[in-house]
């Protein structure tokens, strides 16, 4: 459902605004307009969905705040059409405009817009007072809004007794008390200190989870737009250059201006686990036998894998090959791996920012699982995918580290059947052979300095180009270091095994 719609909207300031608007509609450029004409909004068309946070962002003078004021006719458009919840506000008379504003729209201003001679609860209840609702009901509803905004206990204070952040909370509470389906926020957090601003952003998202309002949010802060917006419109010189999700704008900018505009954004806070996840390299099930699991892990040169319940695909946990070996050496080797699965693990949702995965992936080579709301395994996030996403390099795919393939006899040595005590030694021998070859490869590496690997090339270029700079730069660097070291070990091991085969 569409809550707000703009169709070829113009807003021109000046004595000949109507004439200038007609000239723009006929194809004239802003430079050809009558002297004194200022084009604030130039042929903007967009649709805002019900229940979404739609962020309009741009530099000062881009026309974003003027566009917002055309939506509720505080600054009526000089051309085009605007619909509010199906009603064309650009064709409405003054009385109808006031009704639409009172019933369907509320506004939160940058500098709070509170009445200084009224208490907090009186400010919060003001929209209902205008509608003629009795005092008891409006104060009851205002108290509920103040509770949502964490302001209980302050209802009898005056605005000048509150901090800036608290005053802004009162402004939001006032908008919530109006119970309007559409909320217009004009740089509502721009006047706040960074820490208070982040608190208010988090509060807004919490309120949105509860209330599901349609919010049009104006900002010049790119990180704020990326953090809050379900979709973002980027404006320049009164026009909309691009509309899309944060990830769409970040990964596929429409033009050079937007590409430069987003150059300093913290990509790790925007790119999500769902966009970088890949299918698990192997499928492990709780009903698999130990030998079968060892064979699967060996086929992709992994020491561990994620196990799911057959049928439901719900994630059961993490299984290490070393745990299987230890169990098979015991007096009663298990027939399935169900009881060997570790359940203390970190999982991500598709919406989890990759910033929250960097530390975990820097400390271990185990891929992070991605699950849905029913705990079903959707995919995994390996370190190489994080590097590719943060580096924004098109050729990164060619430098992906592929796992070494096991020898054919190594796979055949582990049967697909459920293990019995007599078979335990076979699997143990397979794993022991792998460990011996790796140890020999490490010993060989001490006497042979390998050539620069693709991963080391990534690392060297990343340091020079400042890949993933910012607060997560060191963690990303650690990922690169580990990727380079792993590639060195693989190359040395392959070289050693090649010599062994020739001998």
What can you tell me about this protein's structure?
The protein has 503 residues and is of the alpha/beta class. It folds into two domains: 2-265, P-loop containing nucleotide triphosphate hydrolases (Rossmann fold); 274-502, CBS-domain. It is 42% helix and 17% strand. It contains 19 helices and 15 strands. The protein has helices at 17-25, 64-71, 94-104, 120-130, 135-148, 164-177, 194-211, 222-228, 246-251, 256-261, 273-276, 290-299, 321-328, 355-363, 383-391, 408-412, 424-445, 454-465, 473-502, and strands at residues 2-13, 38-49, 53-57, 79-84, 87-88, 105-108, 182-186, 214-219, 231-236, 239-244, 284-285, 304-308, 315-320, 368-371, 377-381. A six-stranded mixed beta sheet has the order 6-7-8-3-9-10, with helices on both faces. Strands 2-1-4-5 form a four-stranded antiparallel beta sheet, with helices on both faces. A three-stranded mixed beta sheet has the order 11-12-13. β7, α7 and β8 form a beta-alpha-beta unit. α5 packs across α6 and α15 crosses α19. The protein is elongated and about 90 Å long. Mean pLDDT is 80; it is low at 396-426, 440-476 and 499-503.
């Amino acid at each position: 459902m569409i809550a707000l719609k703009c169709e070829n909207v113009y807003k021109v300031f000046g004595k000949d605004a109507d004439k200038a608007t007609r000239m723009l509609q006929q194809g004239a450029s802003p430079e050809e307009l009558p002297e004194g004409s200022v084009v604030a909004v130039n042929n903007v068309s967009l649709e805002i969905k019900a229940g979404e946070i739609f962020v309009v962002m741009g530099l000062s003078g881009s026309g974003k705040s003027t566009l917002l004021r055309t939506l509720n006719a505080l600054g009526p458009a000089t051309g085009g059409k605007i619909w509010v919840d199906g009603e064309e506000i650009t064709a409405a008379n003054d009385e109808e405009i006031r009704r639409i504003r009172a019933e369907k729209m509320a506004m939160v201003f940058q500098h709070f817009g509170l009445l200084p001679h009224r208490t907090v609860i009186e400010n919060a209840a003001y929209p209902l007072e205008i509608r003629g609702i009795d005092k008891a009901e409006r104060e009851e509803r205002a108290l509920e809004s103040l509770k949502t905004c964490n302001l209980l206990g302050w209802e009898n204070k005056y605005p000048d007794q509150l901090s800036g952040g608290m005053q802004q909370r009162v402004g939001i509470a006032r908008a919530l008390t109006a119970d309007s389906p559409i909320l217009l926020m004009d740089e509502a957090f721009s006047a706040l200190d960074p820490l208070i601003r982040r608190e208010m952003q988090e509060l807004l998202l919490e309120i949105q989870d509860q209330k599901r309002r349609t919010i049009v949010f104006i900002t010049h802060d790119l990180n704020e737009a990326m953090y809050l917006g379900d979709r973002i419109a980027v404006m320049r010189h009164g026009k909309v250059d691009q509309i899309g999700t944060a990830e769409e704008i970040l990964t596929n900018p429409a033009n050079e201006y937007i590409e430069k505009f987003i150059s300093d954004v913290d990509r790790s806070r925007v790119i999500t686990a769902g966009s970088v996840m890949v299918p698990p390299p192997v499928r492990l099930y709780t009903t698999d036998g130990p030998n079968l699991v060892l064979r699967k892990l060996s086929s992709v040169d992994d020491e561990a894998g994620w196990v799911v319940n057959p049928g439901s695909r719900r994630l059961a946990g993490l299984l290490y090959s070393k745990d299987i070996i230890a169990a098979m050496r015991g007096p009663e080797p298990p027939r399935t791996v169900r009881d060997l699965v570790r359940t203390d693990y970190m999982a991500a949702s598709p919406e989890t920012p990759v910033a929250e995965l960097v530390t975990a992936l820097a400390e271990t080579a185990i891929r992070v699982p991605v699950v849905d709301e029913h705990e079903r395994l959707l995919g995994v996030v390996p370190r190489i995918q994080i590097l590719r996403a943060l580096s924004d390099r098109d050729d990164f795919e060619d430098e992906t580290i592929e796992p070494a393939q096991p020898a054919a006899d190594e796979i055949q040595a582990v049967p697909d059947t459920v293990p019995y005590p007599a078979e335990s030694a076979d699997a143990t021998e397979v794993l022991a052979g792998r460990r011996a070859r790796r140890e020999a490869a490490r010993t060989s590496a001490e006497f042979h300095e390998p050539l620069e690997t693709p991963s080391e090339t990534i690392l060297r270029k990343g340091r020079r180009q400042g890949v993933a700079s910012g607060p997560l730069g060191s963690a990303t660097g650690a990922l690169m270091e580990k990727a380079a070291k792993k590639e060195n070990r693989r190359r040395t091991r392959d070289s050693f095994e090649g010599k062994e085969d020739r001998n």
